[in-house]
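ARCHIVE CARD
Drawer: 12
Card no.: 0347
Subject: one protein chain, sequence and derived structure
Cross-reference: see card 0346
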Amino acid sequence: MSQRIEGKHVAFLATNGVEQIELTAPMEAVSRAGGAVHVVSTKSGTIQAMKSDDRADTFKVDRTTDQVRTAEYDALVIPGGTKSPDRLRTDPNAVSFVREFVGSGKPVAAVCHGPWMLVEANVLAGRTVTSWPSLRTDILNAGGRWVDEVVHVDQGVITSRKPDDLPDFCDKLLEEIAEGRHARVPAATEAAR
């Protein structure tokens, strides 16, 4: 791994039902590269991760969605699992955090079902993303373009389809964090506010 991101702070937005490997693989990649990780969720305490349909480990929540500000972080990661993003979509603070992050031009990475948060934040108009195949229609209905690729980057938004894609997803995440902020994309993002 050649990318180093010392001094960078990365928020991992997740709640109960997050797919464990989609949380831990990027967290470990960021940590190994010198970055700091915070688990951000809707409530304090811990969140229950899953391995497919089975309970896995629990993870400590560092900050809640009503406490975080985009300015505190250099990147945002939204892991999947069918339950976590679906639950996060109902939290107005989580949705606002995602919308503001995309609008800031800082890297936002979402894997598997994580792009549901991009749909809910109304930031996909004119963007190309990938995801778990069942999100395709949601993405199209939100004005995005869906592609079946291991990893896709569009103006700092990094997306992947599934756990098998995580090595490429993590590499691209570190590359984008090292690169830093992209130019703001006012058209679709600002219109959604």
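Annotation on reverse: The chain has one domain: 9-181. Residues 166-179 form the longest helix (14 residues).
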